[in-house]
Amino acid sequence: MSDDADATDEDVLDSLFSTIEARQRDLPEGSYTASLFTHEKGENAVLEKLGEESTELILAAKDDDHEELLHESADFVYHLLVLLAMKDLSVDDLRTELEARF
Questions:
Q1: Is the pTM of this model over 0.90?
Q2: What is the tens place of the pLDDT at every residue in 22-59?
Q3: According to DSSP H, which parts of 4-90 are helical?
Q4: Nearest Cα to Cα of residue 59 among 45, 46, 47, 71
Q5: How many CB atoms sit inside 10 A of residue 50's CB?
Q6: Residue 72 domain-assigned (yes or no)
Q7: Contacting residues for 69 by C-beta, under 8 A, at least 6 apart
Q8: Average pLDDT in the 6-30 region?
Q9: Which has fewest Cβ within 10 Å: 13, 24, 44, 57?
């Protein structure tokens, strides 16, 4: 989470997405995020991670393990944001879609 005590939930997602975009652009060596953008499987690597994380999230929910549910939810959201960046979409695009639903 952000060091800024005034950070909002939106700021956390925006900050994470900005970091993901920077890793996509700069491809720093040793970065897990950068490795997802350069993986030999291409976007399939991220899609596989989303599948894995969604299964782990479902199992944590089924087991009523709140700590693990939060952990796996964070992993899922992270990989979802990586996929959005790969598809030239943004958190704002996601926000717009969600806002249109209510």
A1: no
A2: 999 999 999 999 999 999 998 999 999 999 999 999 99
A3: 9-26, 32-38, 43-62, 66-86
A4: 71
A5: 17
A6: yes
A7: 57, 60, 61
A8: 88
A9: 44
Total residues belonging to the chain: 102
- Show Cβ contacts of residue 1 under 8 Å, excluding neighbours closer than 6 positions: 7, 12
Q: Among 69, 83, 101, which residue's Cα sits nearest to residue 17? A: 83
Question: Is residue 2, in this structure, part of any structural domain at all?
Answer: no
> Tokens in use for 2?
């952000």
Domain of 13? 9-99
Confidence of residue 3 (pLDDT cuts 50, 70, 90): very low
Say yes or no to pLDDT of 6 above 70: no
Radius of gyration over every alpha carbon of the chain, rounded to an integer in angstroms: 15
Question: Residue 58 domain-assigned?
Answer: yes
